[in-house]
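Incident review: delayed structure delivery

Summary: a single-chain prediction request sat in the queue longer than the usual turnaround. Root cause was a stuck worker, restarted by the on-call engineer. No data loss occurred. The affected request and its eventual output are reproduced below so the record is complete for anyone auditing the incident later.

Affected input:
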Amino acid sequence: MLLVDVMLQGLRSVDVISYASTTLPDLKILALSPGDPPHDRVILAIQAGALGYVGRDAEPAEVQEAISEVLHGKSYLPVDTTIDVLKATAPELAASAKERLNFMFQALLGLIPAAGLIAAVTGFLWREYWGQIGVRVVDIGVDASTRVTEFVLTFLVLLGILGPLHFVENWRGALKSWANGRPRLRMLGKKIKPVRIGKTTLGDIIANERVQWVAVAAIVLAITVPLDFSGGRILTIILGAVVALVMLANLFSLDDYLPELLRPSKQHIGKALVIDGMLFLVLLLVLSAEVFLLGPDLRQDGLHGFLAPKVLDLSARPVMVTDINENFGPLEALYLGGNADLYVLFDPCDKVVRMIPVGSSRVEHIPQVQC
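Output delivered after worker restart:
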């Protein structure tokens, strides 16, 4: 047995306890504290491996009881002084929760410079994309904030569709508890459990946690995927933002602000953040590959593409351009955008970029360009 005074200079007592408990696992350690125990040192001593503590000025009978309990591998915490220790610790815990909340808001504010980086990257990709057909940045007014918004919204859409999968384990457990509390469902389960499917029974399949996870995940995706493709994109974006905020709250140990169904373990949150970070990088890599390898896919009915048109906020609409001054005949082309002076058009038939003055032209949308 080892008796260690928690009042050794600095935190040497905590170092001694930590080293001793690690080196000699069978060693029983009892911390000695002054009559008014410093809460921080007592807690650190127990965290380091002490089984309890007793006051140096305690009655001999109490010291003997503490030694006897600890020698038998039991914990010993004097009730009255432990209550004082907990009371003294409470304000620090409250301050710690407020600090974590502040850290989360600081992390959110840290996304502002990240948005500048995204703006730079997407602006560069935008220039590379249209530059392949000879359109310059000055030809079309580039709004960097719009590029960032589109990129972030695209990521939130993906997070809105796939993000809820991070909480499937919580929902699986909740559904299992709910089902166990329903007598009719339990009776039905007993009836179908013996049913055989191949070499196994239906009961074994239902009881398999992986099968349960896949089943709940399929239900989640059956809700989130159609939600986006059926015109509910704004709801998908909101869902993605909620998932992001919930994960940040979990990361900063702000679980008290969240319902039970949204409290995955720290290990799951760590994995989820890694997965989402990889999803973000994959999105950027696929976008870059499309820009550099494929370039603009301009057809007679407008702009086609996988990610670039959506993420970079690109468009090319078929239009009929009429010259008010009748200096040239009606022109069918794809309208790419423009600045205060010029319409920027692309002729998909001749593969030529044309610049038409804004003031002398009238633009009407058409279904597609006729070559």
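Verification: The chain has three domains: 2-92, 111-293, 316-365.
Action items: add queue-age alerting; document worker restart procedure.
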